[in-house]
Amino acid sequence: MDNPHKNDILNAKEVELLVTSLHNIEDNLLNSDDLIREKVTEMGDEDYVALSDRLIQQGVDNTLIMLVTKKIQKGKTVSQIADECEITEAEVERYMKQINNASIN
Predict the structure, then answer these.
(1) In sequence order, which ranges of 74-88 are alpha helices (DSSP H)?
(2) Mutual orientation of helices 46-73 and 78-85 as an angle, nearest 10°?
(3) In contact, 72 and 102? CB cutoff 8 Å
């Protein structure tokens, strides 16, 4: 493949276009989950949407377990953790139970 650039150097306009393209790709990747869910829903594949939602929730749960663990280690109360993580105290207690069960096993 021929390269029209001497010494593989891009000019300012090409760099600007490349940066813009990279930002567009990043935006598309960030929004792709919603777009995929929308397209799959249109196709009628509810099982895929349910699986996608479950995987997303699993990721959220894993992140919250990690955050709750760190906050417990810092000596935070259930109320403080709930406020800081924007979840209910019951959810904090559920995550704490999961953390305790994992440490026992």
Answers:
(1) 78-85
(2) 130
(3) no
Q: What is the distance between the alpha carbons of residues 78 and 89, in angstroms, rounded to a whole number? A: 6
pTM over 0.70, yes/no: no
- pLDDT tens readout for residues 9-42: 767 777 777 777 777 776 766 666 777 767 666 7
Q: 61-105: which CATH topology?
A: Arc Repressor Mutant, subunit A (1.10.10)
Please give the Cα distance from 36 to 2 (Å, whole number). Answer: 36
Residue for token pair 């109360």: 77
**84/92 Cα distance (integer angstroms):** 11
